[in-house]
User: What shape does this take?
Amino acid sequence: MTTTHEAPPRNGHYVDVGGVRTYYEVTGTGDALILLHGGLCPAETWDAQTATLAQQYRVYVPERYGHGRTSDVDGPITYENMAQHTIALMEALGIESAHVAGWSDGALVGLLVALRRPKLVRKLVWIDQYVTLEDAPAGLLPFLAGMSVDTAPPALVEMYRAFSPDGPDHLAIVIDKLRTLWVSETGVDLADLARVAAPTLILAADDGGMTLEHVAAVRRALPGSQLAIVPGTSHGLVMEKPHVVNQLIIDFLAIEQVAKLF
Assistant: This one.
């Protein structure tokens, strides 16, 4: 018999979203801020942000299909169905609009929410994620294509096995679905960014999931966007330099867009 274990209490809740028992955490008071995790990541990977951001915002950290404590679904996991799941979650929780910060896969999910339902997203924080496959840094796609239970980050494997309602052995199936997701077209391109109504912060590592050339292209494509590059970081920048990441997010959410001088 397979046994799963729940993590210690974490302000966690469940809500039915389209028939899927969906886990989310909520902390703090104020305007809603939704943090969207990366691939294979549970809510814990936002821990370095949650407490700080919750001092000023009501912070929601949902877990998507096949991640953390939310069960997998029949069929593929796609950016589109994760975006629709996020929209439905917001509706189920009565969130009429929110700031949305997405890291890695979560950035593409947040982008699609902003494109599909512009009124739901007040401001968007895009953290270290390429837009199309051709924009991915050299070597990243072969690494993702070869991902397996044996090569996935051990901490994420351990957390999946501890939390998943599908049981620890289901991880191989989820990784197979995510591997397909990661090497398939994202469903968006640079031209789509012109339709993003929400003011956007592009927050990138200097050695992560976006080349500097691609960062510049995204900056040009997103109307009224702001850009921050965190030095000395990789794709794990939210955990590597949380004090820098947190302050950049807080400053961006707090201010109005600055008028250009020229």
The chain has nine helices and eight strands. The first strand starts at residue 12 and ends at 17.
